[in-house]
Amino acid sequence: MSQPLTATRPTIAGTSLSPLRQPPPLCTFLFLIVLIVATFYTLHHPDAAPPLLFPRNPTHNNPLALRRLFLSSASNATVSSYLRSLTRHPHLAGTKPSLDTLGYVANHFQTLGLDTRLAEYEALLSYPAHVSVAARFSNDTKMEFDLNDVPGGDDVVRPYHAYSPSGSAQGSVVFVNHGEERDYRALESIGVSVRDCVVLARKGESLGRGGIVKVAESKGALGVLIYAENDGGGLGGIERGTVMRGIGDPVSPGWPGVVGGEKLRLEDERVARRFPKIPSLPLSLHNAEIILASLGGSRAPVEWRNSGRIGSGQRVGPGQTAVNMTLQGELTMKKIHNVVATIRGSEEPDRYVILGNHRDAWTYGAVDPNSGTSALLDIGRRFSLLLKSGWRPRRTILLCSWDAEEFGMIGSTEWVEDNVLNLGASAVAYLNVDCAVQGSGFFAGATPQLDGLLLDVLKLVQDPDDVALTVEDTFKSQNNIIERLSRVDSDFSGFLHHAGISSIDMYYGADYPVYHTAFDSYDWMVRNADPFFHRHVAMAGVWGLLGIILADEPVLPFNYISYAEQLQAHIDALSKLLQGKASVDPLSVAIQEFSLVAKEAADEAKKLKEQAYSKNDVAPAAKRRDLNDRMMLAERGFLDSQGIKGKEWFKHLVYGPAAEPESKLGFFPGIADAIATNSSQGIIQHEIWRVARAIQRASKALKGGFT
């Protein structure tokens, strides 16, 4: 680093941004003096509030002042200190070092004076006892591959795939590109079969490691080796990960894995189907290239060549190159611990805004997930300053630190299952940050009614890489796409896909080369992703402001007109894909009704908001409460008790994971699966009707009353 960490630049306070009016020059000067002193104090006393700089009740009935105070209390040096402490040791869930991280997070919230509790569960976790991969080449030479990406790093778990079955697989090697169905079709077209072979796959974007193993198993392969082409940025990293199907504790499927509760036996079909039948292991790029260079047989299909590191002359096998791979794993019940810190609401304590991040990591976890953890800790610190200033949120805020996410979102899933009825009745929104900072550029996914709120908040936070811009400015110029949350790769899944809670997921940087490797360290973060922790501060600013606004606004800032417009865009895309195979008329009628109800709700919200901020608020609080509840519950309408066929735990029929890897839609998962499997017109039409009924339920919830 060329210069030391400094306090966050004062303009992070947002005073120069258009939504927060520019104060007079003298006020600005005095404000900056106060801020500099406050920041200096915070560097040395990160968990305390300067007693004279934050007078009581400076933000009473002044939301703009509250937001300025929240933003101005940022300290990149403090966030850096949190991350350094969190990443001193690897902390894989269920291991002793993970308890140290648990204690650090829980003690932090307790020191701030927040009501902090632990939610304990028991879950079946998977660890490696022994792993090995050896190869025999055409000249009868043999090689034992090094499967450790940190020589001598005994405290780092060896690269493995959690929940891969124990056993050995020996056979000729076939390269299967990304391991997708279309890749196997391409191999079949040149006469190559993988039956009784070990397949070598490079991880792509559309199919996760579990999906790669599932497809290989269905093709008769004996085992799977998976490598990532980013290779830890040239450091030789090996990507760990889980290959379990579905999320949550596998021996308590559909109910919380409470201590002493019911646990299924491993032989139970509901458990066995969650695990692959063939072993798999991760491989470094270097070792994968040794195998690739030795392969004979047919040349790779044309569409694979000159893609990534695959050259035009690449052979796919099978030939005389064979591997012997062995995994001895341990499945063991472990206690996992979620931390939940509560800031009780003053007027609607029974309505909850939830901010969540997972704490466990495959290795040191500087990016994944503790960049998010450090941001969450800083939000807690800043919220405590607001509390000391006299602020109390209207609604209750929960700050949640999840455990065992890396094994399959287990901590958050068990908590959702444990609280599903209360969440359904009272959760306003879930705000998720997993990897807060991976690199440059702001990215987000959300349910559509939260799009407008997210963009409004981005306007309030200074861009971490250009002091003249806001995060919204760079977001619109670089990305400008709010994704939809059908993927299942972080803790929002249980909240949205199972409980139907409006959600946002955010991160800086599209990806990063040390993902799940031993090089995901504090040093890597400082040298590569965020040297001065300005991106961490920006993410904490966006995340915290979203929480404040959702907790404080008299009328929830939900816009279901945006949802209706997004649903219409989905129908247009579906119609093109169907090409007359089924009618989308039921969806069109349902969305037309939903649009009318959304417009009525928007008009009602506008009127009630104007009254709430007028000097003479004549609107009864009960009216606002009624509208807020209707907007909160509308998302639940998209749930279906039968769930997605083949993935019944996932209940959301608009956004959720398709069961079929070949599904071509990022929405309407049931319809997408029916199309991908070439189902009959009747089955496709039935899935269309199911979604139409879900939209009608959402309309009824938003409208209120009864038919």
Automatic annotation (TrEMBL):
<dbReference type="GO" id="GO:0005789">
    <property type="term" value="C:endoplasmic reticulum membrane"/>
</dbReference>
<keyword id="KW-0735">Signal-anchor</keyword>
<dbReference type="InterPro" id="IPR046450">
    <property type="entry name" value="PA_dom_sf"/>
</dbReference>
<dbReference type="InterPro" id="IPR007484">
    <property type="entry name" value="Peptidase_M28"/>
</dbReference>
<dbReference type="GO" id="GO:0006508">
    <property type="term" value="P:proteolysis"/>
</dbReference>
<protein>
    <recommendedName>
        <fullName>glutamate carboxypeptidase II</fullName>
        <ecNumber>3.4.17.21</ecNumber>
    </recommendedName>
</protein>
<keyword id="KW-0645">Protease</keyword>
<dbReference type="Pfam" id="PF04389">
    <property type="entry name" value="Peptidase_M28"/>
</dbReference>
<keyword id="KW-0378">Hydrolase</keyword>
<feature type="domain" description="Peptidase M28">
    <location>
        <begin position="338"/>
        <end position="524"/>
    </location>
</feature>
<keyword id="KW-0812">Transmembrane</keyword>
<keyword id="KW-0862">Zinc</keyword>
<dbReference type="Pfam" id="PF04253">
    <property type="entry name" value="TFR_dimer"/>
</dbReference>
<dbReference type="InterPro" id="IPR039373">
    <property type="entry name" value="Peptidase_M28B"/>
</dbReference>
<keyword id="KW-0479">Metal-binding</keyword>
<dbReference type="InterPro" id="IPR007365">
    <property type="entry name" value="TFR-like_dimer_dom"/>
</dbReference>
<dbReference type="InterPro" id="IPR036757">
    <property type="entry name" value="TFR-like_dimer_dom_sf"/>
</dbReference>
<keyword id="KW-0325">Glycoprotein</keyword>
<dbReference type="GO" id="GO:0046872">
    <property type="term" value="F:metal ion binding"/>
</dbReference>
<keyword id="KW-0472">Membrane</keyword>
<keyword id="KW-0121">Carboxypeptidase</keyword>
<dbReference type="GO" id="GO:0004181">
    <property type="term" value="F:metallocarboxypeptidase activity"/>
</dbReference>
<comment type="similarity">
    <text>Belongs to the peptidase M28 family. M28B subfamily.</text>
</comment>
<dbReference type="GO" id="GO:0010075">
    <property type="term" value="P:regulation of meristem growth"/>
</dbReference>
<keyword id="KW-0482">Metalloprotease</keyword>
<feature type="domain" description="Transferrin receptor-like dimerisation">
    <location>
        <begin position="583"/>
        <end position="703"/>
    </location>
</feature>
<keyword id="KW-1133">Transmembrane helix</keyword>
